[in-house]
Design brief:
The protein is about 30% helix and about 10% strand. With about 170 residues, it is an alpha+beta fold. Strand 1 and strand 2 form a beta hairpin.
C-alpha cells in the first residue's frame, strides 16, 4: 500500500524505483464518487439450495448499474478528465471507463418509509407489520452515499430507542 503511487508507475528495476522516489515528495490522487440510484432489482436474497457451515442459507447479492448510474458516472469521469487535461504534471492513471463500486455500503434491504406497500419500516425503524419489531442498522436506508453510515445508524438507533421508551410508557408497546 505504500508508497501508493507505485501501483500505477509502469516498469521495474532501478528506473521504476527512481520514478517512485521522485514522486514520493508529492503527488495528487484525484478520485470521484457517484451515487447509485435506488433500484428494486438491486437486492439481497438467500439461496434456498446453498447453506454455510452452520446450515444457514447463504446471501445472494443481485446488483446491476442502471443507465442513470452509468450516465452519472460518465459525467463524473468527464469532469475528472477535464481536470487532468489542465494539470501541469504527469498523469499516471485515468479513471476507468466503467464504474467500479469500490466504496460500497450495502443498504436498503429493510427500507424505511411511510407507505407499507413500498417499505418495511416506519420512520422510527418500526415494522409496519410487526408492532414490536424494530430494525436499526444500514438496511433501513432507502438509499445511501459512499460515506460511512455508522453515525447515521447510531442516530437512528437512539431516535428509535426514544420512540420505544415513550410508547412503552404509554402502554402502546
Amino acid at each position: 500500500m505504500f508508497p501508493f503511487q507505485a501501483r500505477t508507475v509502469p516498469g521495474y528495476g532501478s528506473e521504476f524505483k527512481r520514478r517512485v522516489r521522485e514522486m514520493q515528495s508529492g503527488f495528487l490522487m484525484l478520485g470521484g464518487f457517484c451515487k447509485v440510484t435506488a433500484n428494486s432489482g438491486n437486492r439481497v436474497t438467500v439461496d434456498p439450495n446453498r447453506k454455510d457451515a452452520h446450515g444457514i442459507p447463504i446471501p445472494v447479492v443481485h446488483f446491476r448499474y442502471s443507465e442513470a448510474d452509468r450516465e452519472i458516472y460518465s459525467s463524473m469521469r468527464s469532469s475528472a478528465l477535464a481536470i487532468t487535461e489542465r494539470l501541469k504534471a504527469d498523469v499516471t492513471q485515468l479513471p476507468s471507463v466503467e464504474p467500479s463500486g469500490f466504496a460500497s455500503h450495502e443498504n436498503g434491504t429493510v427500507r424505511m418509509g411511510n407507505d407499507p406497500k413500498t417499505s418495511a419500516l416506519n420512520s422510527f425503524c418500526q415494522s409496519h407489520d410487526v408492532k414490536n419489531l424494530f430494525v436499526t442498522d444500514g438496511s433501513t436506508f432507502p438509499t445511501s452515499s459512499e460515506k460511512n453510515p455508522t453515525l447515521t445508524i447510531m442516530a437512528l438507533s437512539l431516535r428509535a430507542a426514544d420512540y420505544i421508551k415513550e410508547r412503552r410508557k404509554r402502554g402502546e408497546l
